[in-house]
Design goal:
single chain, alpha+beta, 4-stranded mixed β-sheet, 7 helices, 4 strands, 69% helix
Length: 255
């Protein structure tokens, strides 16, 4: 029976898995470009795995549990049960990945300036570092940006701002990809657009549940595709406030 992913190793007790689509991609690269192409692809995704392990190492030190690392054709994902709530800790966890990629870029550059494989891996890791520093979700830069803005704006508004920036960048990437016929860039744009909204909705629901139990009023912020970003229409805001007041009064009566 074909599985969706396969365990390739464990590091620090964290299962590192490879998605079936990535395995298929590596096989195609091996047939298309030979042993050198396959070696390059393996080294590239090993760099991605180390990037995610950088996140995971700091996350574990901050008390978070990392369930697994999944390697995909578009990159890697470290799946955690939770992320640090303190902005400083979130900043450190998010910054660990790009820092790891930067260290790898320096290392490959030192190993050989005239060896094509090392030069390519240096450039890819440098690109991975810089791309992940974009101030939008789901890149590390979005979490770094949110951690920096949370003390000033609060977690929800900081998340909304990073999500809006992410969707603007996604639209720009999508237009650029369509113009140049770059299918991979279009897929990345769709992924960023969806992930930006999902991150905001997750934080919004988390704060909504907390506000219901504390009797506060959640912020009424909507994340919409640019340039149509706007607050929710009055009737939607009214229903949200009525529902919130209902549960607030209910909990007060229980107490």
């Amino acid at each position: 029976m074909i599985k969706r992913s396969y365990l390739i190793t464990r590091v620090m007790g964290i299962p590192v898995r490879m998605h079936i689509t990535l395995i298929i991609l590596l096989i195609i690269l091996g047939f298309s470009y030979g042993l050198l192409g396959l070696l390059y692809a393996v080294a590239l995704f090993a760099s991605v795995a180390l990037h995610e392990l950088g996140h995971s190492w700091v996350a574990i030190r901050k008390g978070c549990h990392v369930r697994e690392i999944m390697l995909l054709p578009i990159g890697g994902v470290a799946k955690m049960d939770s992320i640090p709530s303190r902005p400083k800790d979130e900043f450190l966890v998010a910054a660990a990945g790009p820092l790891t990629s930067l260290i790898l870029a320096v290392l490959f550059g030192w190993l050989g300036q005239s060896v094509f494989l090392f030069i390519s891996l240096r450039n890819v890791n440098l690109m991975l570092c810089l791309f992940n520093l974009l101030p939008s979700f789901p890149m590390d830069g979005g979490r770094i940006f949110r951690a920096a803005m949370t003390p000033r704006l609060g977690r929800l508004k900081a998340t909304a701002l990073a999500a809006r920036i992410g969707r603007i960048l996604a639209v720009a990437f999508g237009i650029f990809g369509l113009y140049h016929g770059n299918f991979i860039l279009i897929l990345i744009a769709i992924f960023i657009f969806q992930s930006a909204g999902a991150e905001y909705r997750a934080v919004y629901m988390q704060q909504m549940s907390q506000e219901w139990f504390t009797g506060g009023q959640p912020a009424d912020i909507e994340v919409s595709p640019p340039p149509y970003a706007r607050k929710a229409p009055p009737f939607r805001a009214g229903w949200k406030n009525k529902i919130n007041r209902f549960f607030t009064d209910l909990f007060k009566n229980w107490n």
